[in-house]
C-alpha cells in the first residue's frame, strides 16, 4: 500500500491508491536504523545520544574496530560507557569510565569478580537478537543475564540494569563497578576515583590522550544510583578489591598496560532494576555532578528516553520523503539513517571548554573537516542552519583563542591535518548560503586569509605548510625545503590541489565581500593545480595493461623537475601496500590516487575537461575510474566524482552512477557502509544523493539528479518555507532515472544545477523522468554549473594548451561559448 505523509498537522494526503492517511502519523524515527555501520569498519556510534550530544552511551565491545564503542561483529562487551565519537578511524576515541555489572560475585566474594577489561570481557557475550538500538535508546542483554538499557540528555546518561530473577537472594549481592579506563587504554597519571559509603556516589576523573591528535584532555564523571538499597562499596586495583578504602589515586601503568582500577557498589537485591546516572564534564567532577542533577533530577528512565526521541524527531521532521509510488521501505530507512548520522557529531561542548573563557558556542569532534566539508556540513546548512551558525561561531572562536582554525579536532585537542586548510571551505560554504546568525564574518574572513598567508610553526595540526614554495613556485614541492614550520612532508600533490581549492573558496568570499584585490589574488592562486599537471604521465594497470589515459597530476621537485608516483598508487586497486596516510614514509597523495585526485578541481571543471581532451574523454576517464574499481567510494574524495558528469553535460550519467553505489555500497544493514562513516560523512553522502541534490561544497551550487523517492520536502526551520523536489514518472525499479525536462516554480528549467535560494525561498523543482538519457536537458553549455575556466573543448584544444595561462578568471556562468555537447 502506498501511503504519503506530510509533517503538517491537519493536512490529509491522498495515497496512490486513493486511500486517505492522517498526516500526523509520520514519525521519521521508525526509519532510522542506528546499527547501520556497526560492523565492517563503519565504526559508527550506534548508542543513545541527543543530537550533537556530549553524552553518548553504549556498550563497548573489545573489537579491534570498536572506535565507536559497540560493534556487531561477534566481539563481547567489556563495559558500558558515556563518552564516544562516531565513525572515526585512528585510535578508538573516548569510552572513558566504563561500567561493568555482575548479578553477583562468585560465592559473593568480591575478590572473585573479574575487574580488568581483559578478564571481565569473557562475561560479555551476547546474542545479536538481544540488542535493541533506536535514536536516544540502546539496550543489550548479555548471556550472563544482565540487561543494560541506556538513554541520555546532553551531558548525562541514565542506565537501567535489570538482573536475573533471584539475584540478591541468600546474600548474593548485585555488583556494579566503574573504572578509570578508556577504549584505547590511554590513561595518564593520575586517575582518581571515590565512592561515597552513604549514597554510593562514584566520582572521579583522569587524563587521557586524543585518538588522532596531539596533547591530552582530562575528563570527569559523577555517578549516582537509584533503586535497591546499598549493601556496601569500595575500590579495586588490578584484580583485588576492598570495602575498607573509598578513594583511589592510580598511576598510569604496570609494564605498559594501564593499571585497572575503579570503584564498586553492591546492592542488597535486584527485585527492581538498578538505575545509574552518570554526568560527564571536561571541567570538574563537581560540574559532572551538577550536570547530572540538573538534567536528570528524578531518574525517570522513560521520560528521559522520550525526551531524547522527541529531540531527534524534531531534528528529522523538517525533511519528508514520499513513501508512495512503490518505493522500497529499506531505501527510506537508508535515507533517514544517513540523515540521522549527520547530527551525531560534531558534539556540543558549549560550557564544557576549559581551554578559554568565552560566551561563544563551543563544538568539538570535527573528525575531520577534510571529511565533513564535502557534504556533511553542507547538509546541515540545509537541514539545521541554526546549529551550523553555532558550529561556525565555535570554529571562529577557536581561531580567536588558538590563532588558527582547526582542521580536525577531538576531545579538546588539535587533530592532524590531512590536506588543506579545509575549514576555509566550510566557512565559505556557510557564508555564501546566508548563514549569519551571530557570526562575526569579518573575523571569519581574517581566519581564512591567515590560513593562506601565514604558515604556523606546527602545520601538522592547523594551517598550511610550505607557504614559501607555494607563493614562489605555485605548488608544494615533493621534498620541500621548509624551515619555518613543521609537519609531515608528504602529500605534495594532494596538498597543492587542496590549497588551490581553499584559495578559490577565499576568493569567492572576497568577491561577496566586495574585496576585489583579494578576489583576484586568490582566484589567481586557485589555478595552481595546473602547475602539477604532467601531460606525459601514463598509467599502467598492475596486470601490465596500459589504461590508455595520458596526463595526470604528478609530484614536482623544488627544481621544477617531475618526480614519479604511479597514478594508481593509493588507489583501491593498489596492491603495493605503501602507506598513504600520515606516515613520514607516506606518498604524495593522501589516502587516494592521482587517478582520483585527478578530478579534484571543483573550481575549474571547464579547464580540467579541456585538459583531459574534452567532455567525451573526461566522461570516459570518469567511467574508467568508477568501473575499474580505482575509486574507493568508502572514502570522501570519491563523493564528488559520482556527480562530476554534470560538468561534461551528462547529468544522466551522474544519476546512473549514484544508483550504481546506492544501495549496493550503502545499505541499511550493520555492514552496510563501505568505509568509516567519519562522523557522519557517509551518512550525508547517502542523504544528499538520495534527495537528488549534491553540493559542490564551498560553492553555491547543487547538482540535480532525480530523488530516489516520488518527492522530497524540506522545510526551512527559520523561514518555514518548504522546498519540494518532485519526480513525474517515478519508477521504483529505477530504470526511469533520466531527467527529460524540468520546471522550477512552474517555469521550464534546463540548468543541471541550482543554488541555495531553492531552500531559502522554498521553491518547487519538478523533474520529468524517462528511461533513456536526454540529449537536451542539462546538456548545453549554458546549462552547466559554474567554472572559473571556460567550457571549451573538443577538437582543436591540445591537452596542455591552457596549462600555464592565468587568464583573467571570473566565477561566472555566462562566459561559456559553446552551445551543446555531442554525446558519444
Ligand atoms: C575479546 O575477548 C574475547 C573473550 O575473552 C577474546 O576471545 C578475544 O580475543 C578478544 N578480542 C580482542 C580483539 O582482544
Ligand atoms: C521474578 O520472580 C517473581 C516472583 O517469583 C515473579 O513475580 C516475576 O514475574 C519474575 N520476573 C521475571 C522477569 O521473571
Ligand atoms: C536460598 O537458600 C535456600 C536455603 O539454603 C534454598 O532453599 C533456596 O533455593 C535458595 N534460593 C536461591 C534463589 O538460590
Ligand atoms: C600522582 O600522585 C602521586 C601521589 O599523590 C604523586 O606523587 C605524583 O607526583 C602524581 N603524579 C602526577 C603526574 O601528578
Ligand atoms: C510536500 O509538501 C506538499 C505541500 O505542502 C504536500 O502536498 C506534499 O504531500 C508533501 N510531500 C511530502 C513527501 O511530505
Ligand atoms: C549547544 O549547547 C548550548 C548550551 O547548552 C545550547 O544553548 C545550544 O542551543 C546548543 N546548540 C545546539 C545546536 O543544540
Ligand atoms: C557589496 O556590494 C554590493 C553592491 O554595492 C552590496 O549590495 C553589498 O551589500 C556589498 N557587500 C558587502 C559585504 O559589503
Ligand atoms: C632535481 O631534483 C631532484 C631531486 O633532488 C633530482 O633527482 C634531479 O636530478 C634534479 N634535476 C635537475 C635537472 O637538477
Ligand atoms: C572492487 O573492490 C572491492 C574491494 O575494495 C571488491 O570487493 C570488488 O570485488 C571489486 N570489484 C571489481 C569489479 O573488481
Ligand atoms: C573531432 O575531430 C575528429 C577527427 O578530426 C572527428 O572525427 C570528430 O567528428 C570531431 N568531433 C567533434 C565533436 O567535432
UniProtKB/TrEMBL annotation:
Keywords, sorted A to Z: Signal
Q: Where is the Glycosyl hydrolase family 92 N-terminal domain?
A: 31-281
Q: Which residues form the signal peptide?
A: 1-18
Write down the InterPro entries for this protein, in alphabetical order: 6-hairpin_glycosidase_sf, GH-type_carb-bd, GH92_N, Glyco_hydro_92, PNGase
Where does the source fall among the domains of life? Eukaryota
Domain (Glycosyl hydrolase family): residue spans on this chain: 288-770
Q: Does the keyword Cell inner membrane apply?
A: no
Record Pfam families: Glyco_hydro_92, Glyco_hydro_92N
**What is this protein's record name?**
Glycoside hydrolase family 92 protein
Species source reads Apiospora phragmitis
Amino acid at each position: 500500500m502506498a501511503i504519503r505523509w506530510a509533517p503538517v498537522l491537519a493536512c490529509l494526503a491522498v495515497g496512490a491508491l486513493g486511500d486517505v492517511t492522517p498526516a500526523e502519523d509520520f514519525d521519521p524515527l521508525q526509519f532510522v536504523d542506528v546499527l547501520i555501520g556497526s560492523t565492517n569498519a563503519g565504526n559508527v556510534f550506534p548508542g543513545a545520544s541527543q543530537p550533537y550530544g556530549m553524552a553518548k552511551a553504549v556498550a563497548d565491545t573489545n573489537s579491534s574496530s570498536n572506535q565507536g564503542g559497540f560493534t556487531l561483529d561477534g566481539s563481547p562487551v567489556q563495559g558500558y560507557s558515556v563518552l564516544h565519537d562516531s565513525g572515526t578511524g585512528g585510535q578508538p576515541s573516548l569510552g572513558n569510565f566504563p561500567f561493568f555489572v555482575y548479578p553477583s560475585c562468585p560465592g559473593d566474594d568480591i575478590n572473585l569478580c573479574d575487574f580488568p577489561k581483559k578478564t571481565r570481557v569473557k562475561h560479555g557475550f551476547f546474542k545479536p537478537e538481544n540488542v535493541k538500538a533506536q535514536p536516544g535508546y540502546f539496550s543489550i542483554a548479555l548471556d550472563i543475564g544482565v540487561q543494560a538499557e541506556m538513554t541520555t540528555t546532553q551531558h548525562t546518561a541514565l542506565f537501567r540494569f535489570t538482573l536475573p530473577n533471584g539475584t540478591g537472594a541468600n546474600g548474593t549481592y548485585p555488583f556494579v563497578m566503574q573504572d578509570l579506563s578508556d577504549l584505547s587504554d590511554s590513561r595518564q597519571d593520575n586517575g582518581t576515583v571515590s565512592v561515597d559509603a552513604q549514597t554510593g556516589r562514584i566520582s572521579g576523573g583522569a587524563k587521557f590522550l586524543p585518538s588522532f591528535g596531539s596533547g591530552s584532555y582530562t575528563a570527569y564523571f559523577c555517578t549516582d544510583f537509584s533503586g535497591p538499597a546499598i549493601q556496601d562499596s569500595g575500590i579495586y586495583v588490578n584484580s583485588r578489591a576492598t570495602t575498607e578504602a573509598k578513594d583511589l589515586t592510580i598511576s598510569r601503568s604496570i609494564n605498559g598496560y594501564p593499571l585497572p582500577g575503579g570503584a564498586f557498589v553492591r546492592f542488597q537485591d535486584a527485585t527492581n532494576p538498578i538505575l545509574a546516572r552518570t554526568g560527564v564534564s571536561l571541567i570538574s567532577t563537581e560540574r559532572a555532578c551538577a550536570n547530572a542533577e540538573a538534567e536528570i533530577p528524578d531518574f525517570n528512565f522513560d521520560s528521559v528516553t522520550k525526551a531524547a526521541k522527541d529531540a531527534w524527531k524534531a531534528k528529522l521532521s523538517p525533511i519528508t520523503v514520499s513513501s508512495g509510488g512503490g518505493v522500497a521501505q529499506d531505501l527510506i530507512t537508508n535515507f533517514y539513517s544517513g540523515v540521522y548520522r549527520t547530527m551525531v557529531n560534531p558534539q556540543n561542548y558549549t560550557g564544557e571548554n576549559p581551554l578559554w573563557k568565552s560566551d561563544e558556542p563551543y563544538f568539538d569532534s570535527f573528525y575531520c573537516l577534510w571529511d565533513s566539508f564535502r557534504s556533511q556540513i553542507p547538509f546541515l546548512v540545509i537541514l539545521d542552519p541554526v546549529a551550523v551558525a553555532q558550529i561556525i561561531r565555535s570554529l571562529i572562536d577557536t581561531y580567536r583563542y588558538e590563532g588558527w582554525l582547526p582542521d580536525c579536532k577531538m576531545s579538546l585537542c588539535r587533530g592532524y591535518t590531512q590536506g588543506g586548510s579545509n575549514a576555509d571551505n566550510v566557512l565559505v560554504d556557510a557564508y555564501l548560503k546566508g548563514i549569519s546568525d551571530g557570526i562575526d564574518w569579518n573575523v571569519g574572513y581574517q581566519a581564512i586569509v591567515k590560513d593562506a598567508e601565514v604558515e604556523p610553526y606546527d602545520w601538522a595540526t592547523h594551517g598550511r605548510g610550505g607557504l614559501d614554495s607555494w607563493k614562489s613556485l605555485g605548488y608544494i614541492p615533493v621534498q620541500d625545503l621548509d624551515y619555518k614550520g613543521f609537519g609531515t612532508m608528504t602529500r605534495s600533490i594532494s596538498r597543492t590541489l587542496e590549497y588551490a581549492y581553499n584559495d578559490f573558496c577565499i576568493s569567492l568570499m572576497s568577491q561577496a565581500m566586495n574585496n576585489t584585490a583579494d578576489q583576484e589574488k586568490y582566484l589567481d592562486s586557485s589555478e595552481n593545480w595546473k602547475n602539477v599537471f604532467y601531460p606525459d604521465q601514463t598509467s599502467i594497470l598492475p596486470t601490465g595493461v596500459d589504461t590508455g589515459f595520458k596526463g595526470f597530476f604528478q609530484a614536482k621537485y623544488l627544481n621544477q623537475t617531475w618526480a614519479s608516483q604511479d597514478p594508481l598508487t593509493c588507489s583501491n586497486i593498489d596492491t603495493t601496500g605503501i602507506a598513504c596516510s600520515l606516515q613520514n614514509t607516506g606518498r604524495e597523495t593522501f589516502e587516494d590516487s592521482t587517478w582520483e585526485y585527478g578530478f579534484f578541481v571543483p573550481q575549474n571543471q571547464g579547464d580540467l575537461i579541456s585538459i583531459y581532451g574534452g567532455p567525451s574523454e573526461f566522461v570516459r576517464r570518469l567511467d574508467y575510474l568508477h568501473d575499474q574499481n580505482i575509486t574507493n567510494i568508502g572514502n570522501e574524495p570519491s563523493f564528488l566524482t559520482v556527480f562530476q558528469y554534470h560538468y561534461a553535460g551528462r547529468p544522466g550519467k551522474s544519476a546512473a552512477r549514484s544508483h550504481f553505489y546506492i544501495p549496493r555500497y550503502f545499505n541499511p544493514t550493520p555492514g552496510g557502509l563501505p568505509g568509516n562513516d567519519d562522523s557522519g560523512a557517509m551518512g550525508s553522502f547517502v542523504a544528499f544523493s538520495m534527495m537528488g541534490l549534491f553540493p559542490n561544497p564551498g560553492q553555491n551550487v547543487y547538482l540535480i539528479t532525480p530523488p530516489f523517492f516520488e518527492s522530497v520536502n524540506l522545510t526551512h526551520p527559520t523561514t518555514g518555507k518548504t522546498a519540494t523536489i518532485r519526480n513525474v514518472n517515478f519508477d521504483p525499479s529505477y530504470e526511469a532515472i533520466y531527467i527529460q525536462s524540468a520546471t522550477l516554480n512552474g517555469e521550464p528549467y534546463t540548468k543541471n544545477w541550482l543554488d541555495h535560494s531553492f531552500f531559502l525561498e522554498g521553491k518547487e523543482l519538478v523533474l520529468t523522468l524517462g528511461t533513456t538519457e536526454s540529449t537536451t536537458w542539462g546538456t548545453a553549455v549554458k546549462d552547466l554549473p559554474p567554472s572559473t575556466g571556460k567550457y571549451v573543448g573538443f577538437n582543436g584544444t591540445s591537452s596542455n594548451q591552457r596549462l600555464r595561462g592565468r587568464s583573467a578568471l571570473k566565477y561566472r556562468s555566462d562566459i561559456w561559448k559553446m552551445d551543446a555537447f555531442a554525446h558519444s
